[in-house]
């Protein structure tokens, strides 16, 4: 995707190599996705929420914080090709350091990314309903 806008979409976990994926066909089931591309949406993020259904993609972004958050989150740092560079779980009230080469940050409730099969080297894809 070349032009990012606030909105919704679907996240697909493709795996570290073609044909991989948690369900064996190269793609995980579609995960509901919110996209925060504007400054305002990125700044708001998950603040003030009690949870998130699916995931939130912050773009462009290379770091996040959990100040004011009500729950722990999984954070995946993605490069421009949507490959996972690193993952971590962050409790509320923490600062994350910027990740070199990260262009996007994916956030979800703690434990979700492990269930989806995300790990360093995993490729993800994003489908948009308006595409």
How would you describe this structure to a colleague?
The protein is mainly beta and 131 residues long. Helices cover 8% and strands 33% of the residues. It contains two helices and seven strands. The chain has helices at 39-44, 112-116, and strands at residues 7-15, 31-36, 55-58, 73-78, 84-90, 104-109, 123-127. It has a seven-stranded mixed sheet with strand order 5-4-6-3-2-1-7. α1 links the parallel β2 (31-36) and β3. The N and C termini lie close together (10 Å). Mean pLDDT is 88; it is low at 18-24.
Keywords:
131 residues, mainly beta, 33% strand, seven-stranded mixed β-sheet, globular, single chain
Q: Specify the overall morphology.
A: globular
List low-confidence stretches.
Answer: 18-24
Which whole number gives the mean pLDDT?
Answer: 88
- For the biggest β-sheet, the strand order reads 5-4-6-3-2-1-7
Tally of contiguous helical segments: 2
> Which sequence of SSEs, written as H and E, runs from N to C?
EEHEEEEHE
Strand content: 25-35%
Q: Which helices and strands, and how do they pair?
A:
Blueprint: E1 7-15, E2 31-36, H1 39-44, E3 55-58, E4 73-78, E5 84-90, E6 104-109, H2 112-116, E7 123-127
Parallel strand pairs: 2-3
Antiparallel strand pairs: 1-2, 1-7, 3-6, 4-5, 4-6
Write a brief structural summary.
The chain is mainly beta. It has helices spanning 39-44, 112-116; strands at 7-15, 31-36, 55-58, 73-78, 84-90, 104-109, 123-127. The longest helix has 6 residues, at 39-44.
